[in-house]
Protein 1
Amino acid sequence: MANFDNRAHERTRNRKEHHNDLLCFSHLRWNFVFQRPQHLMTRFARERRVFYVEEPIFDANVPTIELHETQGVVVAVPHLPAGLDRLRIALSVRHLLSNLFVSHNISDPVFWYYTPMALEFSRDLPNAGIVFDCMDELSAFAGAPPALAALEQELLARAAVVFTGGQSLFEAKREKHSHVHAFPSSVDVAHFARARQPHDEARDHAAIPHPRLGFFGVVDERMDLNLVAGIARQRPAWHQIIIGPCVKIDPITLPQGPNIHYLGMKHYDDLPRYLAGWDVAMLPFARNASTRFISPTKTPEYLAAGRPVVSTSIRDVVRPYGDLGLAYIADTPADFVAAVEAALQRD
C-alpha cells in the first residue's frame, strides 16, 4: 500500500543526514485542518527527515503501512484489520514502525508527541529524546479514551521538554514537569494578510449578503450552538458563515436558518479569499471543559487578515487580545450582537 519513492527519500536523507530524524505522533490527520502540527513539521522538514505517524485506520486484511510524502513530510498511516483489541493494535503498529525504522534507516530519532495514546505502541522504540507538544487538554474533549490521563502522566515522566499550546495550559502543566514552556501558536502573517487585498469571491460565498460574520475551524463540542442560534434570531439581516468540518457532534444539531451558512472544509490556501469578504470574524466558543485551556490560533490569523474580532471569554483570547483592545469579548447573544455592532462601526 506504500505510495512512496524510497530512492527519492534516500536522496533527501543524504541532504539532511547531519540532523536527527523526527517522528511525530499525532491524533490529527495530516489532511485535516492545517494547523499547528502541519506548520511545525513542514518547517522541521526543511532541515531533517520528518515522519508524521497518524492513528491506525481499520480497513485492511493484514497490517500494513501507507507512506506518502507531502510538503517534505513523510505521512505514515497504519492500516489494520478491524476487531483487534488494544494490545493487538499496539503490537501491530509497533511492528510496522520497527519495519519502517529498518527500511528507511532510521536511527536515534527525536520523538515528538501530540497524543499520549501513541505511547502504547512507541514506548520501547529507540529514540534520541522525547518532546511533548501539549497543544490541547485532550482529556477534556468529547470521546477522550479513558487511558489518556494515565498515559499523559507517563509521557510527562519520559519527556525531555514539554511545550503547551497557550498560557492557560502552561499554568495547568508547569508543576508537572521541570521543563515546561508556554509555546502559543503564532501566525503566518504574510498568508493571512492576503485578505487585506481585493479578491474574486468564491462561488459558494459571493451571493451571501452583508454584514457577514465569519468563523473557520473545527465545528465540534467547543462551539456555542445556542450563541450562534441567538445571534441569528436577533439579527436576521446578519449572515453567519461557518467554514470547517463538523466532527464529534451530529450535524442535525447545528442551528439552521436562512442567515446561517455552513460551507464545509476549505483548503488552507483559500482561507484569505474567504476572510477578505467578511465584515467581522468571530470565535463563538462555548465555555465548558473542552474550551478551558484552548488558545485559538485563529485569533491572530483573523487579526493578520485585518478583520475585527469578536470572541466569547476564552481565557487565552481575553489575555492578551481582549486586554489590549484587539478583540471584543462577549458571551450572551445580546452582548455578542452589541459587540459586533461596535466592531462594524470601527475603522
Protein 2
Amino acid sequence: MSLSLYPKDRDWGFSLPRWLDLCAKIDAVDDTPIDRDERRAWYDTLRDLVPLAHGFNPTVRLYAGEFDWCKLDTGASTVRNHLKELLGDRLRDGMP
C-alpha cells in the first residue's frame, strides 16, 4: 500500500511498477507481532526517502528471489557482471 502512494515521477533507484507488481504477487503477511507488516513498510519507506532528503543517491532495491545471494562470489567477474546487469542504469558510480 505504501508504494502505491509514492510519486510516480521520481527516480527511486528501482522500478516502482515492478515492486508494486512483486508485492501484489507475493502478498506477504506477517502478523507476529500484530503490526509487523506496518513496521516493515515504514522502515522500507524511510530507506527510500531519507537518502533523497539528504542529497544522496536513491536507494537501490534488489529482489531476494532474483539471485542466489548466499552463493555470491564477489571475486568472480561473471558475478560482478551479473550484478551490473541487475542494477542496470541504477548503478551510479560504477563497480570495479
